[in-house]
Write a structure and sequence with these properties.
Blueprint lengths: L4 H10 L2 H13 L4 E5 L6 H12 L2 E6 L4 H10 L6 E5 L2 H4 L8 E5 L5 H7 L6 E7 L21 E6 L5 E7 L22 E5 L5 E7 L6 E7 L3
Parallel strand pairs: 1-2, 1-4, 2-3, 4-5
Antiparallel strand pairs: 5-7, 6-7, 8-9, 9-10
């Protein structure tokens, strides 16, 4: 048990840095205007998504338990992003019903109700991404099945060894994302030839995504930055 508040605070910020860089880059790169996160506890992904929302001017809603709210607010305030996050507490199955055409959503699969929560997300049918995190072991996410989207737009789900297991589901033609650096070191976008990079000069690694032009599948690799 860590009794040093500063050390505890630093630990909160640095857990899984690579996966959170990726989440932030993905949300910012697709120019999200409505971002919704469902968490079971405090997590650095909230700061990552708040950073993306600040770059794109998005509304960011973070749904979490009442018990986690004080620490979440404290960490968000310390990061200078308090005015970006709209915290909501209560039953996530009820709160999610208030939001439609969600561009980017993240569900923490530590929550026992995560399968139901994933299916409840009302995505933007034109272009959206749903991220399921903490899919350890045999846990499964959407698996390409998004309610109301069958046969209407392309839907693809892939599980990646990022963090403790992450599934990324893309709805619509999300591959044609413009490459843009919005002042925060975030670059993310897919080129028609199938290679995309997100690179941060301060980062120790870079993300490369290769897109299969025939089936639209995205293969994500994290490469260490040369010393």
């Amino acid at each position: 048990m860590c009794n040093n508040p500063k050390r505890r605070n630093d630990s909160w910020k640095t857990r899984e840095p690579g996966s959170n860089e990726f989440i932030s880059a993905l949300a910012a790169g697709m120019k999200s205007k409505l971002i919704v996160e469902v968490k079971s506890s405090v997590s650095p992904s909230t700061i990552a998504l708040a950073t993306a929302a600040k770059h794109t001017g998005a509304r960011f809603v973070c749904i979490l338990p009442e018990a986690a709210l004080p620490e979440a607010k404290r960490e968000t305030k310390d990061s200078g992003l308090m005015d970006i996050v709209d915290f909501k507490t209560g039953d996530p199955t009820e709160i999610l019903q208030n939001y439609e055409k969600i561009d980017f959503s993240l569900v923490d699969c530590k929550n026992d109700d995560y399968p139901k929560l994933l299916k409840m997300i009302k995505v933007n049918p034109n272009k959206a991404v749903v991220v399921a995190t903490n899919l350890a072991g045999d846990k499964e996410g959407l698996g390409g099945h998004v309610i109301g989207m069958k046969g209407k737009v392309p839907v693809r789900s892939m599980k990646h060894p990022i963090g403790k297991g992450m599934e990324i589901t893309t709805i619509g033609r999300t591959n044609k994302i413009e490459r843009r650096n919005q002042g925060g070191g975030v670059q993310f976008g897919a080129e028609r030839r199938g290679i995309l990079m997100k690179k941060n000069v301060a980062s120790k690694s870079k993300w490369i995504v290769k897109v299969d032009e025939e089936n639209g599948e995205e293969h994500i690799f994290r490469l260490p930055r040369p010393i």
